[in-house]
TrEMBL record:
The keyword Transcription regulation does not apply. It comes from the Eukaryota. The keyword RNA-binding does not apply. Signal peptide: none annotated. This is GH16 domain-containing protein. One of its GO terms (biological process) is fungal-type cell wall organization. Keywords: Cell wall biogenesis/degradation, Glycoprotein, Membrane. InterPro entries: ConA-like_dom_sf (IPR013320), Skn1/Kre6/Sbg1 (IPR005629). PANTHER family: BETA-GLUCAN SYNTHESIS-ASSOCIATED PROTEIN KRE6-RELATED.
Length: 83
C-alpha cells in the first residue's frame, strides 16, 4: 500500500498531476496522492470526463494506478481507469 501525501498532488498546464514515488515512509514503501472533494463537489446528474496518461511500463510491481469517483456517503464506486 502507499502513503497519501498532499504534496504528491499538483497542477501543471491546467491539469491535475499525481506523482507516485518508491519511497519508504510511514511504514509503507510507496508515496502517492489522493484528491478528495468531500462536501466540495456534489451534483445530481451530468457527466464527469477524465483524460488520463499513465507513463512508463505497465509491469512494475507496486503500482496500481486508478481514477474513480465515490458516491455520497461512500456509496457506489465508479471506476474510470484501473490499471
Amino acid at each position: 500500500m502507499e502513503w497519501y501525501d498532499p504534496a504528491a498532488i499538483t497542477t501543471k498546464g491546467g491539469a491535475l498531476e499525481v506523482t507516485l514515488s518508491k519511497k519508504d515512509t510511514h511504514g509503507l514503501h510507496y508515496e502517492g496522492g489522493m484528491m478528495a472533494s468531500w462536501n466540495k463537489f456534489c451534483f445530481s446528474g451530468g457527466l464527469i470526463e477524465t483524460s488520463v496518461t499513465l507513463p512508463g511500463a505497465n509491469n512494475i510491481l507496486g503500482l496500481w494506478p486508478a481514477v474513480w469517483t465515490m458516491g455520497n456517503l461512500a456509496q457506489v464506486e465508479q471506476d474510470m481507469v484501473q490499471a
